[in-house]
Amino acid sequence: MKAQEILNGMTLDEKIYHLVQMTTMTYLKTDGTNIVTGPNSRMQLDKEYIYEVGTLLNLVGAQTMIDALTNFLNGSKKKVTPVFMQDVIHGHRTLYPINLGVAASFNRELAHDLAAMAAKEASLDGVSVAFAPMVDLVRDPRWGRVMESSGEDPYLNGEMAAATVKGFQGDMGKYNIAACVKHYAAYGGAEAGRDYNTVDMSERTLRQYYLPPYKAAVDAGVKMVMTAFNIVDGVPCSGNKWLVKDILRDEWGFDGVVISDYSAFEEMIDHGNCQDRKECAYLAMEATEDIEMMSPCYALYLKELINEGKITIKQVDDAVLRILKLKEELGVFENPYRSVNVEEAARVQVGPEHRALARCGAEESAVLLKNNGILPLSKDVKSVALIGPNANTGEIHGSWHCGGKIDETITVLEGFKNIIGDRVKYAKGCDILYNSTDESMIDEAVKLASECEVCVLCLGEHQEYSGEGNCRANIELPEVQYKLLEKVLEVNKNVVVALFAGRPLAISKLDELAPAILDMWMPGTEAGNACANLIFANAIPSGKITMTFPRELGQVPIYYNAYRTGRPKLEEDDFNRVRFTSSYLDMPNSPLYPFGYGLSYTDFEYSDFKLSASKMKRDETLVASVKVKNVGKYKAKEAVQFYIRDVVGSVVRPMKELKGFEKIELDIGEEKTVEFTITEDMLKFWNKDMDFVAENGKFEVFIGKDSRCKPYASFELV
Ligand code: NOJ
């Protein structure tokens, strides 16, 4: 085997440097000056071995890859091809919607196809590994990185994770790249929604809610895992042997490559868990971390640790071999340049085919949150006043835009022009800043609104108000946007709001004021076309939110699959004060929009709910089914959702849990039967003794349009 052969020929220093990950930039100059100066000087790496590192990160551009790799191989003695890794989060050059949007599609095939498209574009630029999917379960919309996640449900996140992994990796052919699931583990549990903050939860909660999506990615064959910045049970993930060695490798059987997050080894010192870089290296190696991203603990101290007998050469060999095996699978030993191709990249990236798929993605991700009947607009509309800070900008394709370009992104104004030509008129109305107080543009917009038949207001956030390091303590719309909306409503009641945001916002007031709200998330390169298509019914909204929208930030964390309490407040009392129940004095318990919620332009009727039996033995399965009929005026898609509640457990069980979903398409008047098979595995949980089992007893079954659906049947596991 090639990998083993290469390992056998490496010196200890070469092996150790193979575990280091540097930025591609380091190798773009040939005189060597860049290596020891600038941001990399803090690494204090040995110049002799800088061309022996195993992997590189941050790369966009086929020619850049070719230059960097050529320089690298010229400088390297051993010439073991490095592989290039990149954050391919929601597209590479063609951007599709942020992942919270893709999840809202409830469409596994779509998630798969979008990832496959990104893989093709990235592979043509010489990228071999995507630092994706990010599958951190999230409950706090203040956290900027909710945009990268699939939301608050372990099952749905796992399904999206598996689909994305398969989309990236395919059969590991020319246009495929390896996936790297992240951030293991529970990064999404950051306290107070503040990035990089403490994560603290019981093992039960960790296993019940937070770990399943990573496991789903592992089961789908993901090649790499990235550990998270945060602590879990007091120990930073990079040095957390229990998480990485015991659970990920031994319990789940993962034998691929584990990489740290950016400089996270060294940050164990800042966490106060390690004295120095040497201790970081020791703990990380004990945890079986393979690649150290952008900090030098391994490079500077592994040899010393081996000499002192604290770690063994075998541990280092195992780590290097895992990396070499991945490289062998990628085929870079036969062809170091792999799939990079300047001409093909230029032809394929952001080409018509990819734009079309990204547009479908954006259309299917959008969620119609409210509609009093004004939507869809007729294409014969006389005039539309398109107003708002997000109406005429490409800065709505989303944070983590990788190689996506603002000037390639279709603005909403362009999208409208593509459908109704010059019957759309534009006024900005206000700027996008979260703390803006500038009202000087409102009058012009109101004048335009008074002159047009309909107004479409593009409100929300700037794309860089979400993403890494972009957290918000206030998730409402800025006052100036409300002022604009209110003034417009004074002169024209025909108002539609297209919302652009990287997170659920607290928009109770918007829900009161606006006749219709279409949440576009951050829709990617084809943003404007998708938005216009939805508004004029060239596409029918079918997205459903996968992260609860609170009425107010004070309700956070708020999620549908919460545990029950000993003093529940009855649903019918939601808006009443009932003291000594689990409730607020000044706020209902219910959210503004629940998990799974989203409207359509058509109506779907659910009938004939069935459950195949009322008892289930452990080796048996049951079938739950429903008929869904399109009784409205448009051919459209519907995400049919299936939930189960375990009524009594040796430890408390969630109010309900999503256990299945199907996205179906129905013509006008068409009816389909949708079935869900119930298995014993579906009923398992971490019981009182921390065994993963299904307990005998009663289970309630729900099928519906969103997480508010009621149980229609029950069965007993015997
Ligand atoms: C830090 C981020 O947390 C991670 O998601 C990303 O993959 C790395 N930086 C590399 O850019």
List the helices and strands and how they pair.
Blueprint: H1 2-8, H2 12-18, E1 20-23, H3 33-36, E2 55-57, H4 62-75, E3 83-86, H5 99-104, H6 108-124, E4 129-130, H7 154-169, E5 178-184, H8 203-210, H9 212-219, E6 224-227, E7 231-232, E8 235-236, H10 241-251, E9 257-259, H11 267-271, H12 277-286, E10 292-293, H13 297-307, H14 313-330, H15 342-348, H16 352-365, E11 367-371, E12 384-387, H17 412-420, E13 424-427, H18 442-451, E14 454-460, H19 479-491, E15 495-500, H20 508-513, E16 516-519, H21 527-535, E17 604-611, E18 615-616, E19 622-630, E20 636-646, E21 657-666, E22 671-678, E23 685-686, E24 692-693, E25 697-704, E26 713-717
Parallel strand pairs: 1-2, 1-10, 2-3, 3-4, 4-5, 5-6, 6-9, 12-13, 12-14, 14-15, 15-16, 18-26
Antiparallel strand pairs: 7-8, 11-16, 17-19, 19-22, 20-21, 20-25, 23-24, 25-26
1-deoxynojirimycin is lined by residues 57, 87, 131, 182, 261-262, 468.
